[in-house]
Design goal:
about 375 residues; alpha/beta; eight-stranded mixed β-sheet; six-stranded mixed β-sheet; 12 helices; 19 strands; globular; binds flavin-adenine dinucleotide
């Protein structure tokens, strides 16, 4: 039913580009409205787990992404003070690849493939309001002009105007955690592994990008004071170094080389209750912003993209397609968001009996039944929306 159908996608991020490509492959005529003057991404890394990778494969872009981001081998949880390993999870199942990807490389590949498939990008087009109207949506642009569009997919992230219209009563709240991110030049010597250094009230994740020429860090600290939400707020690197000054030399040496850092507040957002109304639907962070503690935000957006395109291509009526899409996605994403929230406390236990017991249990489990620990999140990572 999608051949020649005009569909508008708001937002040209990972979710918006992926759904545009998937829809174009089904024959739809897709236009993306993106606020930025060029398709770019922040200079940061992203972990694509097997459940996201299957979508990139099905979209035909996995090989191009893998050229810049070869497979990762393991995730290691380490104690903050001495750097001792507490637990490691091997990522060596050939059928379930993980990749550490530079976000800019991923959007470049998706944008090129989408344009190659006939998707039109309207850049520098910021939306200030969206309302469902008939079988589509009425959109207000930044300059005040209004436009009527047919079926519209809102993939415009955390601050999506459509999300607020469809879910007027949901309010985010500050979690009491802030995160710094930075990329630091590296000499290519780091193994393709993610290392998580776990300290009291803080943790730091580092993994290599672009064949080890860069290392990506995300460092999280619990704090009382409120910090603005969003990716683009800069901070002085000295503040990051100070917050992690009691971590092991490996971490301190890494942070000593950080020159540009961003800091933002981590907020909890309830998963949207209403994912569509009429011909307006939500996708990705617009529907289910998540805390970064399971690295699933973009992976869920990729799953959404494939599922929505499939529902629209298989159902005769858009309303039935959107209802099926919501039914397939809402509970799963809510469960993942919940699990990500719980994971923060797992990393941040204070020194004392509880931390000792938790780390001892993890070490024991790692020796006795490593698979059992790995399997804890198998329901996330082995899920294949393309099957
Ligand atoms: C520190 C951190 C680390 C993360 N690590 C991972 C990870 O390892 N793995 C993972 O899967 N996820 C990770 N995520 C989450 C992931 O980045 C997001 O979930 C993902 O980018 C969501 O994609 P999206 O396309 O829905 O939204 P976005 O990436 O936010 O894209 C939205 C797009 O819409 C555009 N836009 C916004 N508003 C408007 C408007 N009004 N008009 C027009 N255009 C607009 C934006 O410019 C942007 O291009 C991480 C997040 C953070 C904060």
């Amino acid at each position: 039913m999608l051949i020649g159908q005009e569909i508008t996608v708001l937002g040209g991020g990972i979710g918006g580009l992926a759904v545009s490509l998937a829809l174009a492959r089904h024959g739809a005529q897709v236009t993306v409205l993106e606020q930025a003057p060029a398709i770019t991404e922040v200079g940061a890394g992203i972990q694509i787990s097997p459940n996201g990778w299957v979508v990139l494969k099905a979209l035909g872009v996995a090989e191009a992404v893998a050229e810049q981001a070869p497979r990762s081998r393991a995730v290691r949880l380490r104690d903050f003070r001495r750097g001792a390993e507490v637990f490691s999870m091997a990522l060596n199942d050939p059928a379930k690849p993980w990749h550490f990807v530079h976000r800019a490389d991923l959007v470049d590949v998706l944008a090129a493939a989408a344009q190659g498939a006939g998707v039109t990008l309207r850049l520098g087009t910021r939306i200030t309001a969206v309302t469902p109207e008939g079988e589509g949506a009425r959109i207000t642009l930044e300059d005040g002009r209004e436009e009527a569009h047919g079926l519209t997919i809102s993939a415009d992230g955390l601050h999506s105007p459509a999300r607020k219209v469809l879910n007027p009563r949901t309010r985010p709240f500050f979690t009491g955690q802030v995160a710094w991110r930075a990329t630091i030049p590296q000499d290519g010597s780091l193994a393709p592994e993610a290392h998580v250094f776990m300290g009291p009230g803080r943790h730091l994740v580092r993994y290599p990008l672009r064949q080890g020429k860069l290392v990506n860090i995300v460092a999280v600290e619990e704090r009382d004071g409120w910090v603005a939400e969003g990716w683009h707020h800069t901070d002085h690197p000295a503040n990051l170094r100070r917050a992690f000054s009691d971590f092991c030399p490996e971490v301190k040496n890494l942070l000593a080389r950080a020159e540009e850092v961003n800091l933002w507040g981590l907020f909890r957002h309830p998963v949207a209750v209403n994912w569509y109304q009429g011909g307006l639907a939500l996708l990705g962070d617009a529907a289910h912003p998540t805390l970064p503690f399971l690295a699933q935000g973009a992976n869920m957006a990729l799953e959404d993209a494939w599922t929505l395109a499939r529902c629209l291509s298989e159902e005769d009526l858009p309303e039935a397609a959107l209802a099926r899409y919501q039914a397939l996605r809402r509970d799963r994403t809510a469960r993942i968001v919940e699990a990500a929230t719980d994971n923060a406390t797992n990393y941040h236990l204070r020194p004392g009996p509880l931390r000792f017991a938790a780390h001892s249990a993890l070490r024991l489990a790692a020796r006795a039944a490593p698979q059992a620990v790995t399997n804890r999140y198998a329901w996330i990572h082995t899920h294949d929306v393309t099957a």
